[in-house]
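Quick one:
INPUT:
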């Protein structure tokens, strides 16, 4: 069904279940969900695994701030 959905959306790139999980985790953290909750939702037994997603979100935030020229 994932192939069907991506085709309906006009996405030609190969999307896997892992991509969907990654997007889910990243979006939860981006919108303010706490790390512990995201960890439990993903079924991670070790919170360090979930921290990988948090580092990605932090990096994107830094990149966004750096878009503003120095005053």
């Amino acid at each position: 069904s994932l192939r069907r959905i991506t085709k309906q959306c006009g996405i030609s790139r190969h999307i896997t279940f892992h991509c969907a999980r990654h997007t889910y985790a990243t979006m939860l953290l981006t919108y303010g969900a706490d790390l512990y909750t995201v960890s439990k939702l993903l079924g991670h037994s070790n919170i360090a695994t979930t921290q990988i997603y948090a580092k990605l979100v932090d990096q994107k935030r830094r990149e966004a701030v750096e878009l503003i020229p120095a005053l």
